Amino acid sequence: MKKSEVFGYLILAFGLGAIIGILCAPRKGEETRKILTEKMEDNCKQVCDLVTDKVVKFRNQFSDYMEDLKEGIEK
Predict the structure, then answer these.
(1) Cα–Cα distance for residue pair 25/74, rounded to 1 Å
(2) Residue 74 pLDDT
(3) Are 32 and 25 in contact (CB under 8 A)?
């Protein structure tokens, strides 16, 4: 089988998959985009909250480390 034939079959399979996906989609495109947008916003909020929590923990640990270091230097 030649490379051009494989590429042709790959393009054909991709096109058929896209057409079947469009025809069998359970929702309208606008509704799907709305759902995806809401999920992305929720996930972004969760990631932001997680990062904020980690930064706060890091700051607290760093402050504790600096206090211990200052005490060690004073002794």
Answers:
(1) 69
(2) 83
(3) yes
Kindly list the distances between the CA atom of residue 17 and the CA atoms of 14, 29, 31, 33, 62, in Å, as whole numbers in the listed order.
5, 17, 21, 20, 53
Quick: pLDDT tens for 29-72.
788 889 889 999 999 999 999 999 999 999 999 999 999 998 88
Q: How far, in Å, are 56, 61, 68, 74 from residue 71 at the CA level? A: 23, 15, 5, 5
pTM: 0.51
Name the token pair of 10.
């790959």
Place of tokens 């990062």: 51
The whole-number pLDDT of residue 53 equals 94
DSSP conformation letters of 40-72 = HHHHHHHHHHHHHHHHHHHHHHHHHHHHHHHHH
Residue type, 34: K
